[in-house]
Specification:
With 472 residues, the protein is mainly alpha-helical. The protein has one domain. Helices cover 64% and strands 4% of the residues. The chain contains 20 helices and 7 strands.
């Protein structure tokens, strides 16, 4: 019989999960490493959302260009990149398969396009939607691209080496997060093995490291809530996690307030609260400094196809201050199940590769079950739950607001551009909000095996689906 875990069961369940995190981390590496490496090469070139722009941003950083550059016409922001990289990104990034066999990739054609990009001078390229962010999430692939370029490799090799770098880094961060998150380790494992997460991590998208660090951030905040000892390594990991999650994608900035607030409500020592406040304050200061340095260059460059303008949207909101809330609620009500299916990976690529419905439903069911039957956080106070709920809600609203300002026509009745994958970084911290359901240790072990099997099968189905659609 399933029931909500009582207070006397919490400590017992928490103790039983002590070794689960480390065991699941090993299982995760064993399963995810081959899947991620294969996905790096099975996914068509530049066929991850916004990957051409993420690629160009990494190329720009590899030349030492960290700040945005605005075009002479003031119509676009970007930076200076290799002409051959821009040519390849435009040629292959414009391909949309749409399940039309004539649009699928052929290895000889891809290699020919790479060979044709021989122009090696530096030119300006526009990638406004990636240059706006702190370059942290693009730094590792940028270093790899710089090294490969010095060794004489062409832009196609830059793409794949950058993907592999992102995949390995994301895998290691995710494994660390799973091993640390003894409470909820199975839920963290399931998040990291979700098809959409694997797909994003095996790409040059900044989301690869944002997602993995969000799981690590969740595990660290849980340790704060459990009143565990916080050493220098903990603070370094917390700083990096918030840097990647809250500054590299600043819609999630409200989450930076969570560590000191949870520490306060969990009645930790004053020195811990002070140190956590300083860490969160440093993250806020970095965000402010970056935003002030780029706002005149990027935030005013918001026109898309002549119908979207950041400045016009801001004026509209000032004259209709409550209109955005109505539009936001209307957007959520439009297709909530579709958003959840997108979150786990119903549509991959440029939203034109469909995973089988059974795979999507199994992935979603695995997430729900792993969440409900996770081990509880001992001693979690109601104020900590409430604070987490409000801050995650704030991050969600901020995500919609940024899309409303940058990609939604003025006066539109819904927010354009929101995708379910934007919910993924919020998932790990949800374990601080909702109670758990108790389960016997025997059934918990069975559940763990079933979820591992489901996640593994889903991973192979995804690899086959991508190969079939891109290369078959």
């Amino acid at each position: 019989m399933v029931k909500v875990a009582g207070n006397d069961e919490v400590d017992k369940l928490a103790l039983q999960s002590d070794q689960l995190g480390k065991q699941l981390a090993i299982v995760y590496i064993f399963i995810s490493f081959p899947l991620l490496i294969v996905l790096c090469f099975v996914t068509g070139p530049f066929q991850v959302p916004d990957e051409p722009n993420h690629f160009l941003r990494a190329v720009q950083i590899s030349h030492g260009g960290f700040e945005p550059v605005v075009a002479a016409s003031d119509a676009a922001a970007g930076g200076f990149v290799d002409a051959q990289a821009l040519s390849l990104a435009k040629t292959l990034g414009d391909i949309s398969i749409d399940f039309d066999p004539s649009h699928r990739f052929n290895l000889n054609d891809v290699l020919r396009n790479n060979a044709e990009t021989t122009n090696r001078h530096i030119i300006f390229a526009s990638f406004s939607n990636t240059v706006i962010y702190l370059p942290a999430a693009h730094l590792l692939p940028a270093i790899t691209i710089g090294l490969v370029r010095k060794l004489g490799g062409g832009p196609l090799i830059w793409l794949y080496c950058g993907r592999v770098t992102n995949a390995v880094a994301a895998m290691l961060v995710s494994a660390l997060a799973i091993s640390l998150l003894e409470t909820g380790a199975l839920f963290a494992f399931t998040i990291c093995m979700t098809p959409m997460v694997l797909f994003e991590e095996a790409s040059l998208s900044a989301d690869a490291l944002v997602i993995s660090f969000s799981v690590l951030l969740g595990s660290l905040v849980v340790r704060i809530a459990k009143r565990e000892t916080l050493n220098l390594r903990f603070y370094a990991a917390l700083f990096l996690s918030m840097l990647f999650v809250c500054v590299a994608k600043f819609a999630y900035l409200p989450i930076a307030l969570l560590p000191p607030l949870v520490a306060t409500f969990q009645t930790r020592k004053s020195r811990d609260i002070l140190r956590l406040t300083i860490t969160s304050g440093a993250i806020g200061a970095i965000w402010v400094a970056w935003s002030l340095s780029v706002q005149g260059k990027v935030f005013t460059v918001g026109d898309h196809d002549g119908i979207v303008s950041v400045n016009e949207q801001l004026m509209y909101l000032k004259s209709n201050p409550f209109e955005f809330i109505k539009i936001w609620l209307r957007t959520i009500q439009r297709d909530p199940l579709g958003i959840l299916e997108q979150m786990v990976g119903r549509r991959l690529g440029w939203l034109d590769v469909m995973l089988p419905k059974t795979t999507v439903r199994l992935a979603l069911a695995a997430l729900v079950v792993a969440f409900l039957f996770r081990a509880p956080v001992a001693g979690l106070q109601p104020l900590s739950r409430l604070t987490t709920f409000f801050l995650l809600s704030g991050a969600l609203i901020a995500s919609y607001l940024l899309l409303y300002l940058q990609f939604t026509p003025v006066g539109n009745d819904v927010v354009d551009g929101f995708q379910g994958r934007y919910l993924i970084p919020l998932l790990p911290l949800m374990i601080l909000i909702f109670p758990v359901l108790s389960l016997s240790e025997e059934w918990r072990k069975r559940l763990c095996k079933v979820i591992i099997a489901v996640c593994t099968i889903n991973g192979f189905v995804m690899v086959f689906t991508l190969w079939w659609n891109y290369w078959h």
